[in-house]
Design a protein that fits this description.
The chain is α+β, with helices and mostly antiparallel strands. The chain contains 13 helices and eleven strands. It folds into two domains: 188 residues, Porin chaperone SurA, peptide-binding domain (Triger factor/SurA peptide-binding fold); 102 residues, Roll (Chitinase A, domain 3). A five-stranded antiparallel β-sheet has the order 2-1-9-11-10.
């Protein structure tokens, strides 16, 4: 197994993320990850353009019911006479993973509840609806993308304390919001000029240090395989490679490698200095192209073949950065920025037309005395913070 020097995980680690580098380069592997389970990550506000997997807003999985929910029936906020209960906030807060809670407060979550409530109210006013067939098609497409069967999905939902019926309700609301914004988001495509301008202004962020591409077969040394047994297996594989002039390398990866992170792509890694365990990295940069070498790391023995050297330099718009070109990634980023601007403006407009009443005694924010809305008059008394915007 090949990993960064700082990780001890049993799975191959992704490339190191540098905060000063352009986010679009390093986040490609995360794009199709957890967004299919909005009961945990809910739905990104940018669903309006289909970039559900790359936002920061927690929106779309909240309750939109006229009935009083079970649990704490304390009203936190009333949005156009429609209450948001403490139990709703608590329920979703409890289902959010700990690592996400580090980036989110209950104040943030309540704001997302308010925004979703405003949007769903507007969708209802416009007569927007979503059929069961549309929900089924959406679930089917997402299951296909995630590589899951319906039965596997139901098992995961059960483990998370929810059900398929509950998720169908969540997806129905997501799709309703997507329809609400459909007419607002027809012109999101970035022009060639916009792409070139972004590339020029951020070019220093697209510098790529020298990289090497190697393939490896990992024979692990662990509680189940001692060092002597591992060396015997290495010797057998090296003899087999010699006899086949390395042509059977991929077959041996599939049959013998103990690195799940590379077993499906012939053991291949492309990396810069500072990303892999030291012995593996040193060999990768020291070897000649086509050379085979066996090295030992804390994970075990690695039978390595060096395939290529990628010189340091600036990425071009045509370069691949994880399944798409840099040009495509920039276009996606610019479209997301346009969509977010549309979303923010739409929410601001809805707030300007709405009456939002906060119950001060139960407001999860630290200081309700300093509440400032986008516009309108704010009145504070001992009980409520009332925002009436005309």
């Amino acid at each position: 197994m090949v990993q960064k020097k700082t990780t001890k995980s049993s799975k191959a680690a992704p490339k190191k993320t540098n905060s000063h580098k352009a986010k679009i380069i390093y986040d490609q592997s995360q794009r199709k990850k957890d967004y299919f389970f909005p009961v945990l990550l809910l739905v990104v506000a940018l669903i309006i353009i289909g970039f559900v997997s790359n936002g920061t807003f927690f929106l779309g999985g909240f309750s939109h019911k006229q009935t009083i929910p079970e649990g704490n029936q304390t009203v936190l906020v009333t949005v156009n006479s429609e209450p948001i209960y403490q139990s709703e906030l608590d329920e979703y807060w409890d289902q959010i993973p700990t690592d996400i809670k580090l980036q989110l407060t209950k104040e943030d979550l309540l704001e997302e509840f308010i925004q979703e409530r405003l949007l769903l109210q507007e969708a209802d006013k416009k007569g927007i609806s979503v059929t069961d067939t549309e929900v089924d098609q959406y679930i089917t497409s997402q299951l296909s993308s995630a590589g899951l069967t319906l039965e596997q999905f139901q098992t995961i939902l059960s483990q998370q304390g929810t059900s398929l019926d509950r998720m169908r309700d969540i997806y129905q609301r997501q799709l309703k919001l997507a329809k609400l914004f459909e007419e607002q988001s027809k012109d999101l495509d970035a022009t060639d000029e916009e792409v070139q301008t972004y590339y020029t202004e951020h070019k220093t962020e697209f510098f790529r240090p020298e990289q090497v591409t190697v393939r490896h077969i990992l024979i692990p040394v662990n509680d189940n395989i001692n060092d002597s047994t591992a060396q015997e297996r290495v010797a057998e594989l090296e003899a087999s490679l010699d006899a086949a002039d390395n042509e059977n390398f991929c077959d041996l990866v599939s049959n013998y490698s103990g690195d799940p992170g590379s077993i499906n792509n012939c053991g291949e890694y492309t990396f810069s200095k500072g990303e892999m365990v030291q012995e593996f990295e040193d060999a990768g940069f020291d070897m000649d192209i086509g050379e085979r070498r066996t090295v030992k790391t804390s994970f075990g023995y690695h039978i390595m073949i060096k395939d290529a050297v990628i010189p340091a330099g600036y990425l071009s718009l045509e370069d691949d950065i994880g399944g798409q070109t840099l040009d495509q990634a920039i276009r996606q980023l610019l479209a997301q920025e346009k969509a977010k601007a549309i979303y923010d403006a739409y929410i601001k407009d809805l707030k300007e037309k709405s009456t939002i009443i906060y119950e001060a005694a139960n407001d999860p924010r630290e200081d309700t005395k300093n509440v400032v809305q986008d516009s309108g008059n704010v009145t504070i008394d001992n009980q409520d913070v009332v925002v009436e915007i005309n």
